[in-house]
Amino acid sequence: DIQMTQSPSSLSASVGDRVTITCRASQSISSYLNWYQQKPGKAPKLLIYAASSLQSGVPSRFSGSGSGTDFTLTISSLQPEDFATYYCQQSYSTPVFTFGPGTKVDIK
Amino acid sequence: EVQLVESGGGLVQPGRSLRLSCAASGFTFDDYAMHWVRQAPGKGLEWVSGISWNSGSIGYADSVKGRFTISRDNAKNSLYLQMNSLRAEDTALYYCAKDMRQLAFDYWGQGTLVTVSS
Question: Where are the alpha helices (DSSP H) in chain A?
Fold first, then answer.
């Protein structure tokens, strides 16, 4: 089974900061990697699919990169509405999918 | 507008069964794979099960394999999750999610809460 890890598990940042979250797969997953944002009490929201494709309606300050086993989600300039938990997800081993454990971004 | 509305959650004793439903609207249901994802209180997301558009491909997380069964009724625009032999660790908010063909989940319901407790 493919295992996903994320680092850091949490981080504190200020509005305007550049934030980078890393996701690593236990084996190569090509570019089958997605990123979601979840705010408390809300359903997750798709941000990035296929490692680097921005979902429609998502602000351009979000970007994704990587392939193989190592991936990155970057928020170029953190906004107040970006404080949330972020999850990566592999879709390489379909019909089985796996989420990472999440990275909580809060206010410094 | 795409809508996914889950139902069927509730309080159930360990070892009993429960069936969740997800009513879909606003898109051509039988064109897309669908999934169940759960989130235990205060924990992260866990993919539970997924089913292709024609039910020809089905997957389960190891934690539910042999106990849960996913199904769909394209005529009724509905997704189901039959949960048997429930355990305390199955307690979670269960989300229904639509697959966007690029193997990512682009729409989610608001979830239905399942609590397994005696």
Answer: none
Q: Residue B77: helix, strand or coil by DSSP?
A: coil
B46 and A38: CB-CB below 8 Å?
no
Interface test with B, best of A6, A96, A103 (most B CBs within 10 A): A96
Distance CA A74, CA A20 (A): 5
**How many residues are listed for chain B in this entry?**
118
Q: Among residues 52-81 of chain A, which lie with CB inside 8 Å of chain B?
A: 53, 55
**Exposed (0-12), middle (13-18) or buried (19+): which is A106, by Cβ within 10 Å?**
exposed
Q: Which amino acid is at B37?
A: V
Contacts of B65 (CB under 8 A, 6+ apart): none
pLDDT averages per 10-residue partition of chain A, 108 residues: 96 96 98 97 97 97 98 97 97 94 94
Residue B52, phi then psi, degrees to nearest 5: -70, 175
Long-range pairs for B68-73: beta carbons < 8 A, 24 or more residues apart:
B70/B36, B72/B29, B72/B34
B95/B12 Cα distance (integer angstroms): 18
* B-chain residues near A89 (CB < 8 A): 45, 47, 104-105
Indicate yes or no: CB of B105 within 8 angstroms of CB of A44. Answer: yes
